[in-house]
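Long-time lurker, first post. I've been practising inverse folding by hand and with some scripts of my own, and I keep getting stuck on stretches where the structure tokens seem ambiguous. Below is the full token string for one chain I'm working on. Before anyone asks, I'm not after the true native sequence, just a reasonable design that respects the backbone. If someone could post their per-position residues I'd love to compare against what I wrote down in my notebook.
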């Protein structure tokens, strides 16, 4: 695992954008694994600016997002589909038909999850996966537990995640309690992974990610077995 420690959030975003852009520059038809949340927003802004300046193009890329609240319609302004459109897709030249976010309204979630994993495999697998990290070490919505699930699946959010995400909603009761998420094996299959983190609140999770142990009580620690993961964090997340 390579670790890049940055002075601040702006630098985290710039470093992440540099690595992400290099991937797309070298392989214009890259399969992108994307995350929502506040952390990657700065990186998305920089990439959109590079796209506007003609430095990179996403027109031949395909993308798969990590997760989506369930049940929630894609046009709901709290949905992750909506978030991706507003924060990234609306500002770049990607063909929206080639962007996938798990279906927050699937009638048969199990079948939809299986189809999602099959679509990733059919696209050739994810070339670069962007991850944020929860204060409890979750990646995507793989929450700390005795057992973690391999493939895309429907899951319940923990109290800690609901509290952390309440800032995006009018009141805590509005935060959906379930989500469809890519599983641990789906994430670990990505060829390159970049995990972004900033702020003191992420320090405990990052400290465990950087020590010498693996535990399902901090799902991010499984990234230690991945051959090509880069952690990009600011000093507050790194040092506490
Ligand atoms: C979002 C996701 C989550 C977030 C994590 C951190 O697609 O999968 O795991 O990456 O909750 O969220 P922020 O960046 O808002 O601190």
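-- Answer (accepted) --
I ran through it position by position. Result:
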């Amino acid at each position: 695992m390579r670790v890049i420690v940055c002075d601040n959030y702006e630098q985290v975003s710039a470093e992440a954008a540099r690595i992400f852009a290099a991937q797309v520059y070298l392989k214009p038809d890259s399969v992108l694994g994307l995350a929502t949340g506040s952390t990657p927003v700065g990186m998305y802004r920089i990439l959109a600016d590079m796209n506007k300046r003609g430095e990179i193009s996403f027109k031949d890329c395909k993308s798969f997002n990590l997760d989506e609240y369930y049940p929630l319609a894609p046009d709901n302004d709290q949905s992750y589909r909506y978030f991706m459109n507003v924060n990234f897709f609306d500002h770049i030249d990607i063909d929206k038909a080639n962007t996938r976010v798990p279906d927050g309204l699937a009638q048969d979630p199990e079948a939809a999850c299986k189809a999602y994993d099959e679509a990733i495999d059919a696209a050739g697998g994810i070339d670069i996966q962007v991850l944020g990290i929860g204060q409890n070490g979750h990646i995507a919505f793989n929450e700390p537990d005795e057992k973690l699930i391999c493939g895309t699946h429907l899951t319940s959010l923990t109290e800690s995640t609901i509290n952390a995400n309440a800032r995006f909603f009018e009141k805590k009761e509005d935060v959906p309690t379930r989500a469809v998420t890519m599983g641990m094996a789906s994430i670990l299959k990505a060829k390159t992974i970049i995990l972004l983190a900033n702020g003191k609140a992420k320090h405990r999770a990052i400290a465990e990610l950087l020590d010498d142990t693996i535990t399902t009580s901090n799902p991010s620690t499984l990234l230690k077995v991945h051959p090509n993961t880069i952690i990009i964090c600011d000093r507050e997340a790194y040092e506490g």
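A couple of notes from the structure itself: Residues 2-239 form a domain with the Rossmann fold fold (CATH 3.40.50.1360). The pocket of fructose -6-phosphate is lined by residues 35-39, 66-67, 132-134, 138-140 (CB under 6 Å). Happy to go over any region you disagree with.
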